[in-house]
Predict the 3D structure of the following.
Amino acid sequence: MSAERLERLERLVVHLVALHSVAVGLGLLFLTRWGAALGGWPDVAPLFFARQAGIFHFVVVAGYLLEYHRTGGVTFLLTTKSIAVAFLLTMTAVDGGPWMVPASAAGDALMGAAVWAVHRRAVADRASRTSPGSGRRPT
């Protein structure tokens, strides 16, 4: 894969993960009862805490995009996804809970794995283009 295509793929994957978090945040904020019912919870009370989770999704999106656009890094995104997976699997083991909990763990794990794999390849490609003796100039 060309360097340009790899960089576009990395940018696309990071932005798709951020878009997913925006969608979840919007759902938690504005479709709180409907989203809870869809996920398998019969009722959410008080709504404040579910809505607070929604706004925190925007906080993590800001972190993902600030880090990626300022430094090209994905450490915050991968850390967030890892913590989410650990929490969701722990809650599944402790409480059982509705289908949405383990499904969310699987989704977060897949998103994290995709970002990690693409980023790892992009970093390796950038390093090969800038290393001494590669005969290539950095781009």
Summary: The chain has a mean pLDDT of 93. The chain has one domain: 3-130.
